[in-house]
């Protein structure tokens, strides 16, 4: 339109037309230039925003995916894995701190325990384990206590500490050591137990030369029954079934009446029982039955130690030969008979030889090489009770000086 107008005006006065043409042309060009420019700017802005949006929508997810991939790769490096593990443990410890209020275990300050043990005085040491040192101490409210101070430099001890705390914080039983308190301050980890005046079973079965420590038959049977009762309770607890997995005579503590208390739950594991899938472990794929039978085997070794006095930590030859005995002798009675000569001689000829033999049979039953042949803890407890009752009667009758034949009181022990 502008050009045709200019053409028309050119036909008139040339000079005027020429001037007019120049002025009008300038204005029109300016007009045209501005609208073109603004159009160009709008178009430019619009297209750049669209390109930028498209770029973002495509590239950002890829970038975050790559970042996640990179993180995953980094997690595979040992350093990162251990860092994450530590972070996870710290989270666990923190959550323990919170859940402490839900447990009945009181938290004790490090200063309090330091004072009670006289700054962890060497004279107060009552035991040294693989995981720490145990001190005897007097506490104003808790009377005599045993304070276990875990070694500081072992990372895996953190897990053991948590395990003991979580298990003993929940479980209360006549045959499980009572946990009275705990301390968790910076790098210090301490556990406070009720003090057991008769120490551990291992020291009673293997006294140092010259020490007058003798465990009578009725006490041994009572100890065996108590351990089996505690384990049976753990294995068949209503809601929180548990396997111990670290049984030995040194983790059986004895109170002033020689009642056994199972301790050392650092390796214990929770079990989950389902109606269709059987029993499995809460934190792993392991078969629960195998581990239950592992506890039964460890109890069997402990029963053998109780009756023969052979120390499994020193006399591995005796315990290694057991499996051979099962291969050579095809039935349980034959194995028991083969082991009879190893029975502690001080236990024989006291009027309980029949019970001693049954006890030996129960032990052999528990250590059978095939786990599915071993009895359950409920059965072991029942069998030991069948030995305990006549022993108890015999002791009571002897104490009261009655002239009753104890054999009348013996219940018929089932053939095992
Ligand atoms: N509550 C307690 N009362 C009396 N003595 C205890 C008590 N707790 C532990 N002891 C003594 O301290 C010893 C060491 O105990 P601790 O539990 O540290 O070691 P452990 O049973 O050898 O196991 P580990 O070596 O795996 O730590 C025990 O064998 C026992 O003699």
Write the layout of secondary structure elements.
Blueprint: H1 2-10, H2 14-76, H3 78-99, H4 110-116, E1 125-128, E2 132-139, E3 143-150, H5 156-170, E4 179-185, E5 188-194, H6 201-205, H7 217-235, E6 242-243, E7 252-254, E8 260-262, E9 269-274, E10 278-281, H8 288-308, H9 316-328, H10 332-339, H11 353-366, H12 377-400
Antiparallel strand pairs: 1-2, 2-3, 3-5, 4-5, 6-9, 7-8, 9-10
Helix pairs in contact: 1-2, 3-5, 7-8, 7-12, 8-11, 10-11, 11-12
Bound molecules: adenosine-5'-triphosphate.
GO molecular function: ATP binding; protein kinase activity
Pfam family, one: Pkinase
Protein name: Protein kinase domain-containing protein
Helix content: 40-55%
Cα separation of the termini: 119 Å
Oligomer: single chain
Low-confidence stretches: 1-13, 403-416
Class of secondary structure makeup? alpha+beta
Strand and helix order: HHHHEEEHEEHHEEEEEHHHHH
- The pLDDT mean sits at 79
**Which shape, going by the Cα principal axes?**
elongated
Quantity of strands, as a count:
10
Rg from alpha-carbon coordinates: 40 Å
